[in-house]
Write a structure and sequence with these properties.
four-stranded mixed sheet; Arc Repressor Mutant, subunit A; 7 helices
Length: about 180
Protein backbone atom coordinates (compact mmCIF):
# COMPACT_ATOMS: atom_id res chain seq x y z
CA UNK A 1 0.00 0.00 0.00
CA UNK A 2 1.22 3.47 -0.84
CA UNK A 3 2.54 5.28 2.23
CA UNK A 4 1.43 8.57 0.62
CA UNK A 5 -2.20 7.58 1.23
CA UNK A 6 -1.43 8.20 4.91
CA UNK A 7 1.13 11.02 4.65
CA UNK A 8 -0.35 13.23 1.92
CA UNK A 9 -3.70 14.06 3.61
CA UNK A 10 -2.02 15.64 6.69
CA UNK A 11 0.38 17.51 4.39
CA UNK A 12 -2.55 18.92 2.40
CA UNK A 13 -4.39 19.86 5.60
CA UNK A 14 -1.29 21.65 6.85
CA UNK A 15 -0.63 23.38 3.52
CA UNK A 16 -4.23 24.58 2.98
CA UNK A 17 -5.32 24.94 6.61
CA UNK A 18 -8.36 22.71 6.12
CA UNK A 19 -9.47 19.15 5.49
CA UNK A 20 -12.36 20.39 3.31
CA UNK A 21 -11.87 18.66 -0.07
CA UNK A 22 -13.77 21.43 -1.87
CA UNK A 23 -11.41 24.12 -0.55
CA UNK A 24 -8.32 21.98 -1.20
CA UNK A 25 -9.40 21.25 -4.78
CA UNK A 26 -10.22 24.95 -5.24
CA UNK A 27 -6.69 25.92 -4.19
CA UNK A 28 -5.06 23.52 -6.62
CA UNK A 29 -4.05 25.23 -9.85
CA UNK A 30 -5.36 22.72 -12.36
CA UNK A 31 -8.29 21.12 -10.50
CA UNK A 32 -11.84 22.27 -11.21
CA UNK A 33 -15.15 21.34 -9.54
CA UNK A 34 -18.31 20.95 -11.60
CA UNK A 35 -21.79 19.76 -10.73
CA UNK A 36 -24.19 17.74 -12.84
CA UNK A 37 -27.74 16.46 -12.54
CA UNK A 38 -28.00 12.67 -12.41
CA UNK A 39 -30.17 10.02 -10.84
CA UNK A 40 -27.69 7.41 -9.59
CA UNK A 41 -24.19 8.38 -10.65
CA UNK A 42 -22.42 10.03 -7.73
CA UNK A 43 -19.41 11.52 -9.47
CA UNK A 44 -16.42 11.13 -11.71
CA UNK A 45 -13.16 12.80 -12.60
CA UNK A 46 -11.35 13.32 -15.87
CA UNK A 47 -8.39 15.12 -17.41
CA UNK A 48 -8.92 17.59 -20.24
CA UNK A 49 -5.84 19.39 -21.60
CA UNK A 50 -3.90 18.84 -18.36
CA UNK A 51 -6.74 20.20 -16.28
CA UNK A 52 -8.46 17.82 -13.87
CA UNK A 53 -12.21 18.01 -13.40
CA UNK A 54 -14.19 16.60 -10.51
CA UNK A 55 -17.86 16.20 -11.39
CA UNK A 56 -20.27 15.73 -8.48
CA UNK A 57 -23.98 14.92 -8.64
CA UNK A 58 -25.76 18.07 -7.46
CA UNK A 59 -28.63 16.01 -6.03
CA UNK A 60 -26.53 14.44 -3.29
CA UNK A 61 -26.59 15.58 0.33
CA UNK A 62 -23.72 17.81 1.43
CA UNK A 63 -21.98 15.05 3.44
CA UNK A 64 -22.16 12.71 0.42
CA UNK A 65 -20.85 15.46 -1.91
CA UNK A 66 -17.96 15.95 0.51
CA UNK A 67 -17.10 12.23 0.51
CA UNK A 68 -17.36 12.04 -3.29
CA UNK A 69 -15.15 15.12 -3.67
CA UNK A 70 -12.50 13.66 -1.34
CA UNK A 71 -12.67 10.31 -3.17
CA UNK A 72 -12.29 11.94 -6.60
CA UNK A 73 -9.47 14.14 -5.33
CA UNK A 74 -7.75 10.91 -4.30
CA UNK A 75 -8.05 9.64 -7.86
CA UNK A 76 -6.54 12.84 -9.23
CA UNK A 77 -3.63 12.75 -6.79
CA UNK A 78 -2.88 9.03 -7.03
CA UNK A 79 -4.22 7.79 -10.36
CA UNK A 80 -3.29 10.45 -12.94
CA UNK A 81 -2.13 7.73 -15.32
CA UNK A 82 -5.68 6.35 -15.45
CA UNK A 83 -7.00 9.76 -16.47
CA UNK A 84 -4.85 10.18 -19.59
CA UNK A 85 -6.11 9.56 -23.13
CA UNK A 86 -6.15 5.96 -24.27
CA UNK A 87 -4.31 4.60 -27.31
CA UNK A 88 -7.07 5.77 -29.66
CA UNK A 89 -7.00 9.32 -28.22
CA UNK A 90 -10.27 8.89 -26.31
CA UNK A 91 -10.55 10.66 -22.95
CA UNK A 92 -10.47 8.35 -19.96
CA UNK A 93 -12.41 9.07 -16.84
CA UNK A 94 -12.99 7.33 -13.56
CA UNK A 95 -16.75 7.10 -13.27
CA UNK A 96 -18.39 6.38 -9.93
CA UNK A 97 -21.65 4.52 -10.34
CA UNK A 98 -20.94 2.40 -7.32
CA UNK A 99 -18.53 4.39 -5.21
CA UNK A 100 -16.01 2.79 -2.95
CA UNK A 101 -15.59 -0.66 -4.51
CA UNK A 102 -13.07 -2.10 -2.07
CA UNK A 103 -12.17 -5.03 -4.33
CA UNK A 104 -10.60 -2.67 -6.89
CA UNK A 105 -7.24 -1.32 -5.67
CA UNK A 106 -7.75 2.03 -7.42
CA UNK A 107 -11.09 2.56 -5.71
CA UNK A 108 -9.76 1.28 -2.40
CA UNK A 109 -6.89 3.77 -2.52
CA UNK A 110 -9.29 6.65 -3.31
CA UNK A 111 -11.45 5.54 -0.37
CA UNK A 112 -8.49 5.37 1.97
CA UNK A 113 -7.29 8.81 0.86
CA UNK A 114 -10.81 10.17 1.55
CA UNK A 115 -10.89 8.51 4.99
CA UNK A 116 -7.47 9.92 5.89
CA UNK A 117 -8.45 13.40 4.69
CA UNK A 118 -11.88 13.58 6.34
CA UNK A 119 -11.21 11.72 9.60
CA UNK A 120 -8.60 13.10 12.00
CA UNK A 121 -6.57 10.19 13.41
CA UNK A 122 -5.98 11.68 16.87
CA UNK A 123 -9.63 12.67 17.32
CA UNK A 124 -10.72 9.23 16.11
CA UNK A 125 -8.36 7.50 18.52
CA UNK A 126 -9.68 9.58 21.41
CA UNK A 127 -13.30 8.74 20.53
CA UNK A 128 -12.49 5.04 20.28
CA UNK A 129 -10.77 4.98 23.66
CA UNK A 130 -13.70 6.90 25.17
CA UNK A 131 -15.84 3.96 24.11
CA UNK A 132 -17.91 5.77 21.50
CA UNK A 133 -19.67 3.56 18.97
CA UNK A 134 -18.97 3.71 15.26
CA UNK A 135 -22.27 5.43 14.47
CA UNK A 136 -21.60 8.34 16.85
CA UNK A 137 -18.03 8.60 15.54
CA UNK A 138 -19.28 8.73 11.94
CA UNK A 139 -21.79 11.38 12.96
CA UNK A 140 -19.06 13.46 14.64
CA UNK A 141 -17.02 13.46 11.41
CA UNK A 142 -20.14 13.78 9.20
CA UNK A 143 -19.17 10.71 7.16
CA UNK A 144 -20.63 7.28 6.52
CA UNK A 145 -19.86 4.53 9.07
CA UNK A 146 -18.12 2.49 6.36
CA UNK A 147 -15.53 5.23 5.90
CA UNK A 148 -14.87 5.15 9.67
CA UNK A 149 -14.57 1.34 9.61
CA UNK A 150 -12.08 1.57 6.74
CA UNK A 151 -10.01 4.18 8.60
CA UNK A 152 -9.98 2.07 11.78
CA UNK A 153 -9.05 -1.09 9.87
CA UNK A 154 -6.19 0.58 8.01
CA UNK A 155 -4.88 2.62 10.93
CA UNK A 156 -4.70 -0.54 13.06
CA UNK A 157 -5.11 1.07 16.45
CA UNK A 158 -3.61 -1.17 19.08
CA UNK A 159 -6.25 -3.18 20.87
CA UNK A 160 -9.11 -1.87 18.73
CA UNK A 161 -11.26 -4.37 16.92
CA UNK A 162 -13.04 -3.17 13.81
CA UNK A 163 -16.79 -3.54 14.46
CA UNK A 164 -17.27 -4.62 10.85
CA UNK A 165 -15.38 -4.45 7.58
CA UNK A 166 -17.12 -2.44 4.86
CA UNK A 167 -18.58 -4.51 2.07
CA UNK A 168 -17.83 -4.01 -1.58
CA UNK A 169 -19.40 -0.90 -3.12
CA UNK A 170 -20.58 0.28 0.29
CA UNK A 171 -21.19 3.91 -0.62
CA UNK A 172 -22.70 3.06 -3.98
CA UNK A 173 -25.40 1.09 -2.22
CA UNK A 174 -26.25 3.75 0.33
CA UNK A 175 -29.42 5.67 -0.35
CA UNK A 176 -28.49 9.31 -0.06
CA UNK A 177 -31.43 11.07 1.51
CA UNK A 178 -30.92 14.79 1.01
Amino acid sequence: MKEELFTLPPELISRYGTNDPFRIAGCMKNVHLKYFDAHSQKGFCTNILNNYYIFINENLSQPMKRMVCAHELGHILFHKDRLLRDESGKLRQLVEWELFDIKDSTEYEANLFAANLLINTDALKEMIYEGRDIVSIASAFDVNVNLVALKIAETRFEGVKVPFIPGQNFLGKIKDIS
